[in-house]
Amino acid sequence: SIDRATDNIKAGLSKMVERGKMSQAESEQALARINPIVGFESLEKCDIVIETIVEDLEVKKDLFKKLDQLCPARTILASDTATLPIIEIAKATTRPEKVLGLHILIPAPSSKMVEMVRSEVSSEETLDKAKEFCESLGKTVVTCSDSPGFIINRLLAPYLLEAVRLVEQNVASKEDIDTCMQLGTGYPMGPLRLLDNVGLDQFHDLASSLYTLLKDKKFEPPALLTQMVADGHLGRKSGHGFYDWK
After folding, report:
1. Distance CA 158, CA 29 (A)
2. Does 94 score more than 90 pLDDT?
3. In what order do the strands lie in the sheet with 140-145?
4. Residue 140 pairs with which residues in a beta bridge?
């Protein structure tokens, strides 16, 4: 996983150099600031830790309990969760006031914003420091309360799921659905192409989580999406989703 992540970062930096968005020297300096590790020991001096593991509340709570024991009292602990309640993660620690959500949109290097999620016990000092950190990365920070799906996915998930239902019901072709949203509403990418880029399995998990938390039918994954995931048609990363990426 570390090798794959490092290779992805190198490839991303190379593209930025090719496009003139940074120099070769800046690219090398960025790589030099990255310290890949296995295990927790090197996190004990961090001022902020951002977790991006699997979307499973119990697994996250277990991780935050370990981080809480390892990191000094000043350390801010943040979760990149897209749906799960921050307060439940925070209660796994002895510093709930220093726990918050920092949902960094993908692709993280080029996305322009971060959803900063405050739980009912997140302190103003924690929020101010986290916002300052995100702004130092060139991101715009939006703040929201601890509600399932926060802002982006609460709005985006029903839209993407409805696009899948249009395909499922043979209302229109995938190409025409995407063209409608690109040329008709000015979206940079149609919903089905976007799903292929996100990963159908990842989005299926997100939608399922929102459906469980909100009990709202509009978040229920359509049978077509569930079947595609079961068949291994996960989008760009598997070579086939709604489109053929081979």
Report:
1. 41
2. yes
3. 48-51, 76-79, 99-104, 113-118, 140-145
4. 113
List, for residues 142-163, the tens digit of each pLDDT value. 999 999 999 999 999 999 999 9
Tens digit of pLDDT for each residue in 113-146? 999 999 999 999 999 999 999 999 999 999 999 9
Residue type, 56: D
204 among known catalytic residues = no
Which helix (H) or strand (E) covers residue 60, if one does? helix 57-70
pLDDT of res. 217: 96
End-to-end CA distance of the chain: 23
Q: Residue 224: which of 174, 169, 182, 178 has the closest Cα? A: 169
For the record, the structure tokens of 186 come out as 């000015």
Q: How do strand 99-104 and strand 76-79 relate by DSSP bridges?
A: parallel
Angle formed by the axes of helices 2-18 and 24-32, nearest 10°: 160
Of 85, 86, 135, 98, nearest in space to 114 by CA = 135
Q: Are 225 and 164 in contact (CB under 8 A)?
A: yes
Q: CA 223, 228, 229: angle at the middle one, nearest 5?
A: 100
In the beta sheet, which residues pair with residue 112?
none
Q: Which of 103, 204, 233, 240 is labelled catalytic? A: 103
* Distant-in-sequence, close-in-space partners of 51: CB < 8 Å, separation ≥ 6: 60, 63, 64, 67, 77, 78, 79, 80
Question: What is the pTM (predicted TM-score) of this model?
Answer: 0.86
Token reading at 8: 């992805």
Return the C-alpha torsion angle 20, 25, 26, 29, nearest 10.
Answer: 150
Report yes or no: 39 and 52 within 8 Å, Cβ to Cβ.
Answer: no
